[in-house]
Amino acid sequence: MHQDGVQNLDTISRLIYGFATAYMVTGDERALEASINGTEYMQRHFRHQNKSEGICYWYSQIDVQSDGSLRKYMGSTAGGDEGGNAIPCYEQIYALAGPTQTYRLTGSPTIRTDIDDTITFLNRFYKDHGPYGGYYSHVDPVTFDPKADSLGVNKAKKNWNSVGDHAPAYLINLYLATGEQGYATFLEDTFDTICDHFPDYGYSPFMNEKFFDDWSRDLKWGIHQARCVVGHNLKVAWNLTRMQSLTPKESYKTFAHQIADAIPPAGCDNQRGGWYDMMERTLKDGEEHYRRVWHDRKAWWQQEQGILAYYIMAGVYDDKPEYLRFAREGSAFYNGWFLDYEQGGVYFNVLANGQPYALGSERGKGSHSMAGYHSFELCFLAAIYSNLLVNKIPMDFFFKPEPHAWPDNKLRVAPDLLPPGSIELAEVWIDDKNYTDFDREKLIVNLPESDKAVRVRVRIEPAGLGFSAGLTNFDNAIGTFTLDGDLTKCKLHFLKRAVERVPGMKGMILDMSNLKSVDDTGWNYLLFTKQQRGADFSLQLKGLNPEISQGLKDAELDEEFGVIG
């Protein structure tokens, strides 16, 4: 396949986000290496630092020439109304997506400097410091003036991307990594601005997305005109619900519910599942249903917004059962039609019936618009919301902080903005050894003194679970499970589910170092499991406390199971 030398800033950064996220959920060192190397590549080739001004901004694109030299582009090459003669705010925002997720893993001070200096750049040149507030959508690539005549249709304009995309792209992850109040205040200002200016339910079931300087509607901009993007509405509902866990406000809850209730009848395929792309914002004379714009295709990224919006709202509010249904129906459509089960990857667009749309630029699975970001983010956060909030299943996450990277050696490991008290830090391993110096409720690991990066594995579980079982090793078809809490009849299903999710096991090792007790139901399950798996299946126990050791003898199973140590 012929490949040119064009590399886009956002595409590279979003792919780096994917690698960093993959490490966080798998611990695969290759993914960590890719995220670190990818961030360094961005710093070498896309970054512009002005240290005297304390700002950092990023080139829109580089073009690798045949002789190995580079051409760098200041203005976006997206073209036309998308900002061909400008630097769109969203490009600078998404430049931080990959580096910030990598920063969560490593705490690298050079990445932190780039993040803070880019935010300084955004606040200095894109932010409206006048009475209206918010962020302008574009600036002139030479003067950084958001009101330059050269911007044409983008002169002194604001939009969803320039205002709201800070939160999901980098700002929530930056707050999770640092816990710093300044970032929390930035988030609060962002969502207050959204709640003040985006709802417009007297006019349309869809929120406002394009604005003039004073927040009046811009219904003439480019291809959008008086139209909406379904996924942007869902993205606001998703992120408002995340913010509700950090700074609860009735305005956040109300607007999220307005979107979640309005979009299914107006922008969802209620027959086959999935979310449409662009819709007309209003009904024309004689119309009963909102019309789709140009086509009935469904884009991969908009399915993500719908799945995440309804999963987190089902988990946080648990007030409308249809929210969980919408999340599961959206997941079923996405898993059934967007994944290429033969060649791998995710399709850009599918038709309403799920058939891949393989024409033009949308035929490829990677482009200026598509990288690893939305696909990885969907896998990551859908797992968090469905496991930790809905199904009450523990999850493991991985980090590899550099020496003394975090203030007071405190590593923050909260996976996302979730309701206070809904999850807790159950177990920690450092360099694959059990570690006990951590704050269970604040989800902070107090790192040991070290002159090298340490591998940190944490187990996050729903609060009050009382029992957890997780696969910590799988070698030569022998699965090692770490148990925590009390193995009783009402908790047995957690162990069964953990065991049944690992196919092809020829034996198990159960680490009971953190297990307090086992009742008769637990012993019966272990014996019956061993019986079902056949004579060659081994089951070994280790780390038994005196109570469990006595229970094993009372059940007369001390000869049936091997005891290690």
Brief summary:
With 565 residues, the protein is of the alpha+beta class.
Q: Name the assembly state.
A: single chain
Proportion of residues in extended strands: 15-25%
The coarse silhouette is: globular
Mean pLDDT: 93
Q: Biggest β-sheet, characterized?
A: 5 strands, mixed
Unreliable residue runs: none
Structural Rg: 25 Å
Number of helices: 16
Secondary-structure-derived class = alpha+beta
Amino-to-carboxy terminus distance? 57 Å
In total, the number of strands is: 25
The order of strands across the largest sheet is 21-22-23-24-25
Helix content: 25-40%
Describe the structure.
Helix content is 40%, strand content 19%. The chain contains 16 helices and 25 strands. The strands form nine sheets. It has a five-stranded mixed sheet with strand order 21-22-23-24-25. A four-stranded antiparallel sheet has the order 14-20-16-17. It has a three-stranded antiparallel sheet with strand order 1-4-5. Helix 7 runs antiparallel to helix 8. The relative contact order is 0.07. The model has no long low-confidence stretch (mean pLDDT 93).
